[in-house]
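Lab meeting, action items carried over

1. Structure of the two-component assembly. Owner: GW. Status: complete.
Input record:
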Amino acid sequence: MRMTLLQKVWDHHAVRTLPTGQTQLFIGLHLIHEVTSPQAFDMLRSRGSKVAFPDRTFATVDHIVPTLNQRRPFLDVLAEEMMSALEKNCREFGIPLYDITSANQGIVHVIGPELGLTQPGMTIACGDSHTSTHGAFGAIAFGIGTSQVRDVLASQCLAMEPLKVRRITVNGSLRPGVYAKDVILDIIRRLGVKGGAGYAYEYGGDTFDRMTMEERMTVCNMSIEGAARVGYVNPDDTTFRYVEGRPFAPKGADFARAREWWQSLASDPDAAYDDLVRMDAAAIEPTVTWGINPGQSVGITEKLPSPADVGAEDRASVAEALEFMSFRGGMPIAGTKIDVAFIGSCTNGRISDLREAARLVKGHTVARHVKALVVPGSQSVRKIAEQEGLDRVFTAAGFEWRGAGCSMCLAMNPDQLEGRQICASSSNRNFKGRQGSPTGRTLLMSPAMVAAAALAGEVVDVRKMLEREEVHA
Amino acid sequence: MTDTRYIDAIAGRGIPLRGHDIDTDRIIPARFLKCVSFEGLETHAFEDDRKQLAERGQTHPFSDSRYAGARILVVNGNFGCGSSREHAPQALQRWGIRAVVGESFSEIFFGNSVALGMPCLTVSAHDAEALLSAIEANPLVEVSLSVSAQSVEVNGRKYQASIPAGAREAFTAGTWDATGLLLDDFDEVRNVAKSLPYVSGF
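Predicted assembly:
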């Protein structure tokens, strides 16, 4: 056989070879939200087109949703206009919408898996680059732009160029205090922010085998930060257990048949890859970004690079990043004072992320100068957290407990940095201006590291905090 | 009148934009995505970068009057990385850009640009530097490129460029707006849907 999951899923969904030589690929699940879809619906209308498969598109609202006051109409008239446009479009074209009043509302990449919409072997597209998240299930999932959203609405298909597959094998146990976020940050640091261009990343090895689905989602989510539009993990028992029983999952005898099909799609043991990379999990430290792209990171015990330390090609980028951040080469990242702590996003806004952060926060207080907020990835995550009392753990420590949405990951709602603030963030991008202030600064790290930084008021090694907890326990 | 669907030869003045990994948040900051149409996005292209340079007494190429009216953007590597927002290539196209030439492009940005009829051609790092320098030395110099011949020409010198065959064909055959093509054989789309167990039932 010698086939990868990517090849098998691709072949199942290939409609035909287009005159351009590209593949016409059927899209099994299309997810839409308020930011990248309104123009696509307008294009459909102006062409007099219909939605070809309205039951294969699902909508929710996440990017612009205010997390404090969610009363309609929203105070932000532009946000209200986008929300109304999505409601109108979904009504007109017969697309199910999980709106702000729905218990299923949340970040599109959190609710797809929660509802069982996301399943192994699917092709999944969404007008959002972090669609790679769904690859955690052994789906081929990728972000698209608005004109391609139009194409999927009109035809349920996309014109695609072939992808190569790079197998990234990580073996070994993660040390305490080291999380899935650190694994993907380390992968991006090693392979570079453009290293994945042209590739799908297949994550394999016993480190990923042992990960929960939520951890795998964190890894696949950030594939795009390494330029891999697609990242996936082969489906296994962990995957099937997660999917079983969810609202849109196959039921009863159907589930048994589905499981068999899903299993058959996993990469063959002797599959041929275009590239192979091996890494050792035990060597990964808690990792923090110091620059203006997700590849500019160091282990918590390391020092920042100087332009002189790097190759000629990276020198200007390192100098630009240090200048923007007001950091110096040679300084440690530990001890960097923070102003804001943000726990949330499609990368790390799931229940396991909140549980781990709450475990660290319990009985402690947020540093006086730090504004700290927890934004659950979905209303369902929020509800579970409240049932477990996590909200009270956070608020007792001085965190704000918010409604579900993308929030300060990209700051299209009122949750924004101000001026030169530095934010310890569990999100996925540290681009200039990403968190709402054009000069604001972002340090990406795991939710546990964000929690530790919120308490200390500065970037600290979460492992030391965990050691202390064990002494007290 | 020429049919605007067919895209091959593009010529005009160039605009040089140096730097690797210029992400789509920088091309169009997220706050300008709060809109239900793409109209007017061009006024916000690189808004924060432009302002920050101006505060330091420097001029961003997109604020530099010498490059006003330019049609061909020349960049370095991994241009357009990050978010899938089509607002980024929309802002550039509405500003007047008709083609982008650079060392490499993020795949989503590249795909969005194809869908808008704005070709992105790849050249070597060495040639990108030569093109950037030539335009900086003389902003009035004409840059011309050919999608079918995969070349860029400045000052009588031809540089080898590349663009994947599928996109190249889509531009020259006038099928870069893919919707029509994807609907040509809708029976086959239905057949594939039926063949998928998660669509037709396990």
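2. GW to write a short summary for the group page. Key points so far: Chain B has one domain: 9-175. The longest strand of chain B covers residues 9-16.
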